[in-house]
Amino acid sequence: SINTLMNFTTETPSSSSSSAAGGSCEKDMVDLMFIIDTSASVQKEFYAEKNFALDLVRVLPEQDFTKRISIAMVKFRGTADIHFHFHPGRRREDIIYDIERVEHTGGETSLATAAELAYREIFRLRRPEARLIVVIITDGNSQDEWKDVKVAAKKLRASTGGNGIYAVTLSEKYSVEELREYTGTEDNLYTNHRIDQFIQEVGNSISRCPDGERDGIKVTPVPDVEASTTPSSTSMLFDLMNSTATQLQDKQVRTKIGQPKKHNKEDEVAKARDEVIVSS
């Protein structure tokens, strides 16, 4: 199936290739943790960054959500909350539904608090036999004390074996130093121009089977397409419809209160015909 993402298109593995390698894929389980920033720090980029999380989930094979892929999400500002827990067997559509309902909150920014909460969720509900991948979506501009950053980052890195944490940002101003502290390497930091590379590399890491029998995600860059910073194209459509309806309603009200109405030629002919009928 083809999916259009923020600045590229992807082709996910077909159902036939997926089922052919189903046995080996089921043994390669993946637990995916999202940590998403809803604070004032990312106000401009929030919807684009949320759409990135949605797009990543959408390109993962639907049938893998039955047993193989389990996803959890932590959202944070100055405090942090579990938006939804790891729960193997949840449908991809249900996860997408939950992510769509994450709202921008504003407020202070504490990634360290979110990392601590994510660590506890991982420690409690992660499947021991599953690969763990953590995707942090933020600009890294927290108000955390550096000692707290180092402690939280060390715990989170240890939970993944040291190389399973990625940071993604669509902000122009981001903290390389803080994000690198969590990922352990700048190679795992993906900024706006590397988003397609993230889907290619990390998406394939999740989607492909260990034996390589399943096709990977194919990414085709689309030039000069900017990431959306609006809630969604659907909400834009509703706004347009509402605007049109309001304009029509205003026009009707103006007509009712006696503002002159334009007459076309057909109206004038009809009026003349009515006058002839009345006079006869």
From TrEMBL:
Q: Where is the signal peptide?
A: none
Q: Where is this region: Disordered?
A: 1-24, 256-280
Q: Where is the composition biased (Basic and acidic residues)?
A: 264-280
PROSITE patterns for this protein: VWFA
**Superkingdom of origin:** Eukaryota
What CDD domains has UniProt attached to this entry?
Answer: vWFA (cd00198)
Q: Where is the VWFA domain?
A: 31-206
Instruction: Return the Polar residues bias intervals.
Output: 1-13
Regions of compositional bias (Low complexity) in chain numbering = 14-24
Question: What's the protein name?
Answer: VWFA domain-containing protein
